[in-house]
Structure formats: structure tokens, C-alpha cells
Design brief:
about 375 residues, alpha/beta
């Protein structure tokens, strides 16, 4: 049970991120479910009174805005509709949260983020500092993707992965994703024989294969997005929980040992490596041989000799994915070369590189200090 792992205990988990899906906050008619939100606000207040610092990643702006603008398909027929709906609905969403939290004598703050805000290292650190100050003041930040300006190329695309990245930026120990199901099942939840998987210690291909798409038609997530978020969170040393929000006081239900799936955290890496490992906008790939894969697993840097092929367009310092001989991602790292030079020295010994490039080369393609194994 979740309570056994102290996710909702202030001592074990001083900072907690709670993510709310659109289908929980907004009804089928596109109206805010204010009564349910009031029960969640009471739960959040109980967490704060216990000593936890809590931030919320809240969906719902597009769904709320679509109703007010009379847009079809929940405001998601086109990117332009989604942007207009988000700009309109965000006001209603923020007002709803501010009112619900004020009734619990809590102050709300609004933070709107784009993918670039958490993928660019300097902007990531700025967001981290803002979150830290708000949490220290006892404020409850309400965070959403800035859909009114985000394009398809610079979007998280779902608030599950956003919540995992926010947890890193906030220095949180756990994320709770409130969903329309109790957690991850061993088959489709509508199957009478389906069984809840209470604990996941490793996200294997079999576990990933159990995830499906968005079922509500209102949001953009689904179990696949939640498992992807769990991969980001756990690799950064953050526990992630999937639980149902289809009840009043959903966090109180968890405290009492309600059903959920918990993805246990890996050993926490250093902050920079956690940021690299959770990056979503890789600019390219390098495929490596078996010898290089073994070297990376033992903590070594990636040398040109171990590379087999380069793809993508990237510059020095960009995030790239390192692909193993079986075609599966092994690591993410910051490239020491741009794509053109990396392609020129692929497969070459270190003593050949200077002659090929015409200048003193860097020691490796990706240094171990700028690499996170997956």
C-alpha cells in the first residue's frame, strides 16, 4: 500500500507533487467540478498542515475554455483551437483553484511552463528557484503547460510527464498522479479478471506494454503517458504513484491505504544527471557497438571508436540519445561534438581524430559526467 512507503508522510516526503487530470476537474458539459475540487483542496490543506510542501500540476484549461468558446472536440480540433481554449480556460481554472484553496486558508500561485522552460538548463534552474521560494512560503503552486503559446514542436503533450519534470525542478520526493483508474492493471481494467499491480520496481518492456492510451477523450494522457512519467521520475530518484481521483478526498483515501500502483524510485542521481536523464527533446542519436555498451555500463565515457552511426542535427552541448547494439536506448548525454564532426570521427580511434578534424580533438563523444544511463 502507498502508506507503507510514506509517500504522504511529511518526514519521508517533505515535497510532494500532485497531478490532476482534466476528466477529474471538468465534467462532460465542460464545467468545473467545484464540489469535488473542494474535497481535494481539503486534502491538500491536510498535507500542508502535516508539514508537507505541495505543488499541483493541473490539467483542465483547454476543456474549460472549449465550453466557453463553443469549440468542438473539447477544443482540440486544431492547434489554434487548443491555444485559444487554453488562453480562455486558464483564467477559469486559476480562479477555481484560488477559491478552493482560499477556503482552506491556503494561498495559490500560478506557474505556466513550456517544454523549453525545463529543457533549457538556465531556465530550468530559474523555475526550480521560483518553486523553492513559493514552497518555502507555504504557497501551493498550481502549474500547467502554457498551451496558449506552445506548439507541437515545443510541447510536453501531457501533464503526466510535466509533473515528473516539475518534481525534479522542485526537489520533490514523490509524485501522485490522480487518474480515472486505481492504477496499472495486468490487462484492460474493464476485464473482470484484471488485477491491479500494486508495486513496480522496474519498468520492463512487459510493464510498458500494459499501458494504453487516453480513455476519457478529454485529456491527452493515458496509462502510456503515466508509465513514461514514472520512467522519468524513478530514474531521478522520485517515487511515483498512480491512484484514482474518482472519489471525494482522494488523497485521504491514499493515506488510509487505498488502492494504487507505486513505482519505486531508483537511487537518486546528482541533480545535473537527473535533468539530463529526464530530458525530452533529444536532437540526435548515436548508435554504439557492444564494447562501448559495456564500457558505458562500467561508468566510462563514450569514445568515437565505439560509435557506429550518427543521426539527427545537433550542436555541441545538445542532448542526444545513445542507442545500444540491440536498438534500445542505453543513455542520454550532452554531445561534445556537432553532428557533422561526430559523423566524421565515428568508429575512429582516438589517435586518428586530430588528423581527421584538423585540430586537437576532445577526448570523447559524450563524457561520463554529462551522461545519464537509462
Amino acid at each position: 500500500m502507498v502508506a507503507d512507503l510514506n509517500v504522504l508522510d511529511a518526514t519521508a516526503c517533505p515535497r510532494l507533487i500532485v497531478k490532476i487530470g482534466s476528466s477529474l476537474l471538468v465534467d462532460d458539459a465542460g464545467a468545473l467540478r467545484s464540489d469535488w475540487l473542494a474535497t481535494l483542496a481539503a486534502d491538500l490543506a491536510a498535507r500542508v498542515r502535516s508539514g508537507q510542501r505541495v505543488a499541483v500540476v493541473s490539467s483542465g484549461a483547454i476543456a474549460l475554455g472549449a465550453r466557453r468558446l463553443g469549440l468542438t472536440k473539447g477544443g482540440r480540433a486544431t492547434l489554434e483551437d487548443a491555444q485559444a481554449a487554453a488562453a480562455t480556460g486558464q483564467i477559469a481554472l486559476a480562479h477555481g483553484w484560488a477559491s478552493a484553496l482560499a477556503a482552506q486558508e491556503l494561498t495559490a500561485a500560478q506557474i505556466l511552463l513550456t517544454l523549453d522552460d525545463l529543457e533549457d538548463r538556465r531556465r530550468y534552474l530559474n523555475a526550480s528557484a521560483t518553486l523553492a521560494r513559493l514552497l518555502a512560503l507555504g504557497v501551493v503552486p498550481i502549474i500547467n503547460e502554457n498551451d496558449s503559446v506552445a506548439t507541437e514542436e515545443i510541447r510536453f503533450g501531457d501533464n503526466d510527464r510535466l509533473a515528473a519534470r516539475v518534481a525534479q525542478a522542485a526537489g520533490a520526493q514523490a509524485v501522485v498522479l490522480l487518474s480515472d483508474v486505481d492504477g496499472l492493471y495486468d490487462r484492460h481494467p474493464t476485464d473482470p479478471a484484471a488485477k491491479l499491480i500494486a508495486r513496480v520496481d522496474a519498468i520492463t518492456p512487459a510493464i510498458a506494454g500494459l499501458a494504453g492510451g487516453s480513455g476519457s477523450g478529454m485529456g491527452t494522457g493515458g496509462m502510456a503517458a503515466k508509465v513514461a512519467a514514472a520512467r522519468i521520475a524513478t530514474a531521478a530518484g522520485i517515487t511515483l504513484v498512480i491512484a484514482s481521483g474518482r472519489c471525494d478526498h482522494p488523497l485521504a483515501r491514499l493515506v488510509q491505504g487505498g488502492p494504487a500502483t507505486i513505482f519505486t524510485a531508483d537511487a537518486a542521481p546528482r541533480a545535473r544527471k537527473a535533468w539530463i536523464g529526464g530530458g525530452l527533446t533529444a536532437r540526435g542519436e548515436v548508435r554504439i557497438d557492444a564494447g562501448a555498451a559495456t564500457a558505458l555500463a562500467s561508468g566510462k565515457s563514450l569514445l568515437p571508436a565505439g560509435a557506429k552511426a550518427i543521426s539527427g542535427t545537433f550542436s555541441r552541448g545538445d542532448l542526444i540519445i545513445i542507442i545500444g547494439p540491440d536498438g534500445r536506448p542505453l543513455a542520454r548525454g550532452l554531445s561534445e561534438y556537432d553532428a557533422a564532426d561526430a559523423a566524421r570521427i565515428t568508429g575512429r580511434r582516438s589517435d586518428e581524430v586530430a588528423a581527421i578534424l584538423g585540430h586537437t580533438p576532445r577526448a570523447c563523444l559524450v563524457h561520463r559526467n554529462h551522461m545519464a544511463l537509462l
